[in-house]
Amino acid sequence: MGNLWQISEESLSTNLKQMQSQETVFTVGNGYFCTRGTFEEGYPHGTPATLLFGVFDAIPIAKEELANAPDWVGIQLFVNGERFRLDKGKLLSYTRTLDIQTGLLIRTVQWESPSGIKVRINSERFASLADEHLGMIRYSVTLDEAPKDQAVDVSLRANFNAARGNYDVMHWDTLDQGHTSDLLWLESRTKKTQVTLAQSMSFNSGDSELRKEFVDGDTEPSIRLTGSLAPGATITAEKVVMMYTSRDGDEPLQATLDHHQKLLHTAAEATAGSAHTVLVFDDQFQQQKAAWEQYWQQADVVIEGDNKAQVGVRYNIYQLRINVSAHDSRYSIAAKGMTGFGYRGHVFHDTEIFMLPFFTYVLPDIARDLLLYRYHLLAAARKKAASNGYDGAQFPWESTLNGEETTPPSIVHPETGEVMPVLNGFIELHITSSIAYATWEYWRVTGDDAFMRDYGAELLLSTALFWDSRAEKNEHHHNYTISDVIGPDEWHEHVNNNAHTNIMAKRNIQTALSTLKWLKTAAPAKANALTEQLNLTDERLMHMQDVQEHLYVPQDAHTGLIEQFDGFFKLPTFDQSKYKGRKDSYQGILGISEVQKYQLIKQADVLMMLTMLRQETDENTKKVNWDYYFPITDHDYGSSLTPALHAILGNELGHTEEAYRMFMKGALVDIENLRGNTPEGIHAACSGAVWQAVVFGFAGLRVTETGYSTEPHWPDNWQRLAFQFKHKGETVKVDLHR
Hints:
By secondary structure, the protein is α+β, with helices and mostly antiparallel strands. The chain folds into two domains: 6-271, Beta-galactosidase, Chain A, domain 5 (Distorted Sandwich), CATH 2.70.98.40; 315-737, Alpha/alpha barrel (Glycosyltransferase). It contains 19 helices and 28 strands. The chain is globular. The two termini are 22 Å apart. The relative contact order is 0.09. The active site is at 490 (proton donor).
């Protein structure tokens, strides 16, 4: 592996699954939008998508999904009337590279047309991190060889394609389109949610011999450049696209046109040229590089001695940035980000448990916004709790913009084809404590007292009230229990006293009460207001304390072994040795009902909880539970979430080789499509878990009230591990050498 900042492919795979997987891998984005790595000229059965942060449209059953916007990347090339297509003519050479240091996607193709014309096409594409409304493509065509060594006719057609959907679902109606002397524009609106999107395009070349024509059309308006190309000569054109939505302001079309024209006219004035022909790619790319350089100065993780791990971790850190807005707290990071249609752009606890630690430690302003997303939706969470007969706030398992439950009631199982009821929205409760955990961790690491005073305390107390009312008193055993839930191990449904759920509920109440105590001293007026608003009577607070102290934890006091849920140890074990080489999960192999009968785990459950509470848990408890649960977890085809997360506990317990193996499963899950579902989008939670595995696992970073410590664990060949983080506003640089 050469450049440690690049993902490359040296040949074109015509396997459709592989091609669609690479579309995901080569996504460019900036947090405002992401665009999949499809080809400018298109390809049969490709899945082009540009998804915008928080732009949804309604659908049946699953409520709503991120709406695939009109495709902005299209450029068709015609040479002597023959259209350049990778599935026609002859492909002589092909390379494609994503430079994750600068967010630049580059492709170089040498192609021979059916009539024998040989051309070289080079395209460069980026979504600007410096100007989030801007996308750019620089497209060059060189004539290498032509029959009789004659010049050829060339036509380049840059378009917007409004006929794009989320697979078969079309979300946008064209409102209007038109052009000015320099720009072509398209205005669209989502069918149900009525979000307006304005897109403008300029398509300029420095070649004054080329003729420019604006072609209006409701579904594929375009700008055409036509002319002739002599052997050995090159034509270069730049497609500049600007996008605004009605989420940005009342007049997105005007904002788009103003922004775009200012960009062109400023550049034209600087070069004494014309907005009709001015080239801006180089200048805008310099700004792009500067913005990414600033990001990498904060976020980079350096691994020396293991190139594959180095590229893998950087790729995942790249994904964490392109899939989140730097300033918009109305939406969060989806399970697949904005890189594909999987999970429809819905937000899970993946954000709080797997991704948010990266932002808390590296980009706390974004972490704050991600938590504010939950705070803004407290009213809906209270409504959900009340509708189920409980107090406080119960957060939905899947959510979008309004905070209502968006988990579909049933789906077709992707492996078995069974129609399966989806109970997660009803009884998978631990997302509520996950949000509370992330809130407390953010405060613990950043020391952002203003956030805790104004927002965090209410989040913690509201979620604690839910658990206080959800826990059932067992008079016989003088304790409290939580029945009929799904824990993180979703292969076992309708279980009682899931250890993860109970222990994190206890901690939710505990941190809420601690916060209230702090608030009474730090901001008495706010404490009084919250006490009145949430009806925190002395009697209620005493009950919360009682639940916190006596909520049942199914743990053997002598060995430290925790039972995942009531009766788990009575389930028969499963002989996994018979299924070596399998390509499906155990749920896919056994079926939804059968897998529940065995001690088989989809993803870390007890071990996830111990990882989250690792600084409060003794080593023996970690060891006995690791020894029991690690071997019975489906690390390959269960959940993508937890292999990398296992690396943290694995390192603590001295299983460095196993931890490294788990870490690499996470680091390469999308780059190598290890689970076969990368076409649906990247595994965003896995990206966060990969960062955690390196920083908390291999570096052994521990942050306390007073400072930090590291305890490195070195995989083979690793010689150096360096990164930085922020602790209570101060930047801390860590540089470990073997």
